[in-house]
Amino acid sequence: MDEFQVKDGMIRLGQLLKAAGLVESGGDAKAVLAEGVVSVNGEVETRRGRQLRAGDVVTLRGESVRVT
């Protein structure tokens, strides 16, 4: 599992997907969220604007990133 450190204490899900390299663009982030293949802490998430904090784990197609 990779880790992604946030500077301001929180990051939005769409931003994390791009910054962590799970998707290439904001459009790709929107598409995978609409497909229902992204989970946060084990639950499917479809909101790009979901705020993530330290300890949250985002998973997309078997790749996971923990927010630190």
UniProtKB/TrEMBL annotation:
This is RNA-binding S4 domain-containing protein. CDD domains: S4. Keywords: RNA-binding. It comes from the Bacteria. InterPro entries: S4_RNA-bd_sf. It comes from Solirubrobacter deserti. Pfam families: S4_2 (PF13275). SUPFAM superfamilies: Alpha-L RNA-binding motif.
